[in-house]
Amino acid sequence: MLQTFNEKNRDLLVNISGKLLHRDAAGISPFDSAVQGGDAVWEGLRVYDGRVFKLTEHLDRLRSSAKALAFAEIPTNAHMLDEIKKTLAANNMHDAVHIRLTLTRGLKVTSGMDPRLNQSGPTLIVLAEHKAPVYGTTGLSLITSSVRRFPPDCLDPKIHHCNLIQSILAKIEANTAGADDALMLDKQGFVAETNATHVFIVTAGVVETSRLVACPEGITRDTVLHLCRVHNIAHAERDISLTEVYRADEMFCTGTMGELAAVTTVDSRPIADRTPGPMTQRLSALYRELTASEGVRVV
Prior knowledge:
Blueprint: E1 13-16, E2 19-22, H1 33-37, E3 40-48, E4 51-52, H2 55-68, H3 77-90, E5 97-104, E6 107-108, E7 118-120, E8 123-130, E9 140-144, H4 152-155, H5 165-177, E10 181-185, E11 191-194, E12 198-203, E13 206-209, H6 219-230, E14 235-237, H7 242-246, E15 250-255, E16 259-266, E17 269-270, H8 278-293, E18 296-297
Parallel strand pairs: 9-10, 9-16, 13-14
Antiparallel strand pairs: 1-2, 1-8, 3-4, 3-5, 4-18, 5-8, 6-7, 10-11, 12-13, 12-15, 15-16, 16-17
């Protein structure tokens, strides 16, 4: 689903390494590692009534990804929280806000791939926008992409990096096919995730999702599994084939940008009766209860 421009965002102030700049004036150096090679990590955060949901988990994952990429310097959670608060205050934001938090390796002394060329950094970018969840409530259509997700021995998905070419290629296929997103498989042909979200199916009352082999450690994914444990909902993490997707009773995807969203068709084949199922609706309601009551106060 294509997002349209939100007039509220016309005069956003963007935070780049502590400096607040108008969106039209904001920029990073062509010598920054993000420009030179996509050498950066990122997180998506959502603000609900002045609180960021699962903030600590997101900041920990950002720092974990930067550590895996051997960043020489990594900001503390406290420093990043201060910059998030400063950005939200400057934009007078408190609800229905999405934050794109990016940490790059920093500036290079000359163009090139070698991290030894980085002699200052990192660069922290806080981009906060007025943005509702990106998916509608009637159900998504997916197509199976020809682009496969990497296993850990090719590029470990536990690194939440900014080089999104794999996902972009899959999204292009979805756009061309007139679908909302693309379902991506691993090298063995099992479901990994979509180009943007984790995937769950429901069969005979059991909520199932892929193992963490070719998909990242999803925070919304983990929250759904937590809800299943707390509310005694049968669930499993295992390899899932396309056949099992096609014959599932329900299907939904999860992510910070879109929360929980039902999937109603895959490869033009209906999932059950093409409507969001009862388990999807139940878990969505439980998730909304969490976001309404939990989170780190930032405003």
